[in-house]
Structure formats: C-alpha cells, structure tokens
Design brief:
This protein has 68 residues and is an alpha+beta fold. The chain has one domain. 24% of the residues lie in helices and 35% in strands. It has helices spanning 11-20, 62-67; strands spanning 5-8, 35-40, 43-50, 56-61. Strands 1-4-3-2 form a four-stranded antiparallel β-sheet. It is globular and about 30 Å long.
C-alpha cells in the first residue's frame, strides 16, 4: 500500500474529508465489495478496503490533504 496513505477511524470522518477535498463520486459503502479507490494525477487520494472479516478500513493520502 502507498506509504502516503493514513487510516481514518470511521466512515463519517472519511466522508467529511472527501467532501472537503471536493470528492463526491464515491459509492455508498454497502456497495463496495472488496475495495474502492479515488485517484488524482495518477496518485491514490482515497481508498476503502473491505477485509474478509467484513471490517471496512478507510485511508486517505495525507500528503494530498495538506496540499488541498
């Protein structure tokens, strides 16, 4: 996984960050089967991974957050 990604603790906070960054094209979380990612300039900005256990993990590119 990209070294610039930082795990975000919950879905609400993750979506708040996405909105702040102008990302509104993310699918509903219950529609994500394994993973979803959003890229800008060929760099992962946001990532959602659903583990086999069913736990969902949320990641954001902290470098992109600071530049926004």
């Amino acid at each position: 996984m990209n070294g610039r990604l930082t795990e975000i603790g919950n879905a609400s906070q993750f979506h708040e960050y996405l909105s702040t960054m102008g990302i509104h094209s993310n699918p509903p979380l219950d529609m994500i089967k394994e993973s979803w990612e959003y890229r800008r300039d060929d760099e992962i900005v946001a990532l959602v991974k659903r583990e086999r256990s069913g736990q969902t993990r949320y990641y954001l590119n902290a470098h992109r957050l600071c530049r926004h």
